[in-house]
What we know:
Blueprint (H helix, E strand, L loop, with lengths): L10 E6 L2 E11 L3 E3 L2 E3 L7 E6 L5 E4 L5 E2 L3
Antiparallel strand pairs: 1-2, 1-7, 2-5, 3-4, 5-6
Amino acid sequence: MAEKEFQTGDHVSWxxxxxxxxxxxxxxxxxxxxxxxxxxxxxxxxPQYRIRNDHSGRDAAHRPEVLRHEPS
Length: 72
């Protein structure tokens, strides 16, 4: 399966404890960093995306395979 690609500003959703969560892609992470105190082991070969949650306003990092494009 081809890797999913997302752009800054894309509206996406992902599975969450309470159902589906929604947010906006802030940027693509391609190196090890921290998001909200958690280590994100991203690399150019295994990128993750920083997402701003629509409900909480908090940032989270997610792998592309768990994200789904949503209509804006």
